[in-house]
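Tutorial handout. Part one gives the primary structure; part two gives the three-dimensional structure as tokens.
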Amino acid sequence: MLAWLAFQILRPSSDKRKSRRHIRALRREFLDQLSRHPRLSESRFESQIYHRISQLSTSRDQTARVWLLRWGVVLLNCSHIVWQLRTWQSDSATLTAMRDASLRGLQRIISERGVQHRFLDETLAELQQMMDALQTQQTEDAGELAGIIWRLWCSLSQLKQALPDNAGQLRSAGIL
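Part two.
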């Protein structure tokens, strides 16, 4: 008991390093999900996100915890959508090109170095244009793709609403 108390009081302040390590790992794992042949399965990636969130649940680094919760949920949703896009098939070259463009848009938003907020607006606008174009087509494939792209747009638009007031500080700290 005394050893535990001493450790809690004298614990090294490595929370920021630990937080950044988890955040960088999460970014790498998500980028892997965007590759043609991801190393982790959909369920394994989901487990990794939950594991990383639980690892930081006792962290004193509140900023990193909030970032990981916000982005963890968004990246989890996006990874599910990526897997849906991968399994979606169409004979239409136009629809397949739209699917591929939506995946490329995701790759522009997040990198190992952080979140590329300037590309978030562009990608959301591109996804909206795709949805508008898909609404004019009266095929089952177009309707299905529109639904998947709409879910991606909804997931990513949460990031616009979730940008914290101190986003500049977070970017300079390497979190955003």
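Part three, for discussion. The chain has a mean pLDDT of 84. The longest strand covers residues 110-111.
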